[in-house]
Amino acid sequence: MKVRAMVAHAPGAPLVMEWVDLAPPGPGEVRIEIMASGLCHTDLSQLQGTAAPYPFPVVVGHEGAGVVREIGAGVTSVAVGDHVVPLGIGECGTCGNCRSGLTNLCAVFLGEIASQPSPFSLNGRKVSAYSGVGSLAEHVVVPERNCAVIRKDVPFHLACTIGCSVATGVGAVLHTAHVGTGASVAVFGLGGIGLNVVQGARLAGAGRIIGVDINPARDAQGRRFGMTDFVNGSSGDAVAAIQALTGGGADFAFECVGSTALMRQAFDCTRVGWGCTVVLGVPPDGQTLDLVPFAIQLGRTVKGSFMGNIKGRSQLPALLDHYVAGRLNLDDLVTHRLPMAEVNRGFALMTSGEAVRSVVSFQEERA
Ligand SMILES: [Zn+2]
Ligand SMILES: [Zn+2]
What are phi and psi of 105, to 5 degrees? Predict the structure, then answer.
């Protein structure tokens, strides 16, 4: 079928609306009508070509939510009419990684990093689906294992955020760092990911939650998510400020920007003996992180986390239970809602720092 999708034809080019061909769901696949899709900084890095793993042309968007409209042969765990979040990282449930209980990185997904499957084409030429999703399209087709069935009582423009920003931030706290009650946490970068680290830390019962950002507007925003202290990164030494606030160093530090210089600051502000640094931001392609081995040998660790190490089908949907119970704040996360035609303005709002999360709402547009 033909569907409207926002396509980027080259690095730096604006997204343009195209009628692309969408392959029908094959065996084990599902077609989802996208109702809302959040804009993420990694989409922007792909569009600008700075961290661009997918060849152009590409449909970006990987934080979607929608309704199952069609299922292929053999699909048993997803039904037409289900509300779902399409997943960049599927969960087959049977591979060694899925069964390990240690990681969300399903072996099937690891294979897809190289093959980059996509249901989209234009004039007979493959169009990439960013992160295996490409949710800035009216419909997508994904394998059943890449479908997280969610509760139906959360609006799509909020529910979609669990597909990336909430999963990445809250998941990293709960499933990568395993932050405990009373811990001190430093968060570098208070955008869509960082604010979710903040509220994940609150959910985990952290004591001191210190946010670092160069945008002073993030001070008040961060406090709505549970931040206890704000450090303006553009005035003075953030590492020294965090060491002073924590009496020697933070138990945990999270880098949420994608700056190797900030990763270094995050590491330096963690406590000697047990401090843990979690790397979440995606730096420009080719950058490396330099650390002195002895600084790690002093009991500190650096961990990585992809989509918060949260399993997409079996663990992710429960994040919406936390929202409904009032333990996670999604209402202040989505600061802007835009129709599909204004998606380029949505990325401009991200670049200027005005938006925390902009969500393209397909549903409103059709109503
Ligand atoms: Zn994302
Ligand atoms: Zn698996």
Answer: -85, 80
